[in-house]
Design goal:
By secondary structure, this protein is an alpha+beta fold. The protein contains 5 helices and 15 strands. The protein is about 20% helix and about 25% strand. A hairpin with a 2-residue loop joins strand 7 and strand 8. Helix 1 packs across helix 5 and helix 2 runs parallel beside helix 4. It is globular and about 55 Å long.
Length: about 300
């Protein structure tokens, strides 16, 4: 993964939903290969866990600074990193600015080279309120800006490639239907790497049998596996929501044998991971995919 957009905020508190709304709209519109989105809600710790080994991270949130509602402010991550006070801290009270400081310490060399913070000035933050018109416009401006920047970078890389990668079969690459994931060296042993394969959210894991790709959707409740963990001793991928366990090599259900992950074909070309998700979600070919282990790469 070369870039990750993280939306922070509370969907139930009016303009505080700006960050998650940006993530929702970007995901619906489609992002370049190698770019992912995470709705971190109000859980600051998710911000820290999501950015491991990602070169560029963009954090989007609402703010109250006294500026004009809907106004956009851009800051570097270093400008807003704040360590939490030494007492009274829990994972539920860790804000994203605390999380940036925590991630810089915890991730060390795996901390992103570039962190951009985009703040949208909010107007109303009452529970049950929708986005105010000014923030609605601000959210749209942020989406357009992010997409423009990402697609310009992607187009430049396509127009001026440094090499023409070939697959192990000697064919020109990328082949139709395949999407770029993270570099091989960016995948740690105990943490899945989330990414977007077109419109499909996926994760790359490093199991005992090597690299594997799965749809980022738990076979138990259908929730994201972006922040799952890997129990290296038992080679199990563990969902953080309800602790369901899956074989990290096959996707087979360990907690419930009839619940298995959707596996995707995976290839490594020129040091970069490529995956090939199903073309049409919900087709007859995929109808029972949650009932069987994913194919081995």
């Amino acid at each position: 993964m070369r870039a990750l957009i993280i939306g922070c905020g509370n969907l139930l508190r009016g303009d505080d939903a700006a960050g998650p709304e940006v993530v929702r709209r970007l995901t619906a519109r489609g992002l370049p290969d190698g770019v992912g989105c995470v709705d971190a809600a109000t859980a600051g710790i998710d911000v820290a866990l999501s950015m491991r080994s990602v070169p560029h991270v963009i954090v989007v949130d609402a703010c109250r600074s006294g500026n004009t509602p809907g106004a956009l402010m851009e800051l570097s991550g270093a400008e807003v990193e704040q360590l939490p006070p030494p007492s009274g801290i829990s994972v539920h009270a860790l804000r994203w600015d605390h999380a940036l400081a925590f991630a810089r310490w915890r991730l060390a060399d795996e901390y992103p080279a570039e962190v951009t913070v985009l703040l949208i000035e909010g107007e109303r933050f009452e529970y049950g309120e929708p986005l105010s018109p000014a923030v609605e416009e601000g959210v749209e401006r942020v989406c357009e800006r992010i997409l423009e920047d990402l697609f310009v970078v992607a187009a430049a890389a396509t127009a001026h490639p440094t090499t023409t990668p070939l697959s192990e079969d000697g064919e020109a690459w990328p082949a139709p239907g395949w999407h770029a994931g993270p570099p091989v060296d960016a995948v740690p042993d105990a943490q899945p790497i989330p990414f977007m394969a077109g419109d499909a959210p996926g994760i790359i894991v490093r199991g005992k049998g090597g690299l594997r790709a799965f749809r980022s959707r738990c076979a138990h409740a259908g929730l994201s596996l972006d922040n799952a963990s890997i129990d290296c001793g038992s080679n199990a991928l563990v969902c953080r929501w309800h602790a369901y366990r899956f074989d990290a090599d096959t996707g087979a259900g360990l907690t419930a044998p009839h619940r298995c992950l959707e596996g995707w074909p995976l290839r490594v070309v020129d040091g970069l991971i490529w995956v090939c998700p199903p073309v049409t979600e919900g087709s007859a070919e995929e109808a029972d995919v949650s009932e069987r282990p994913g194919p081995r790469a």
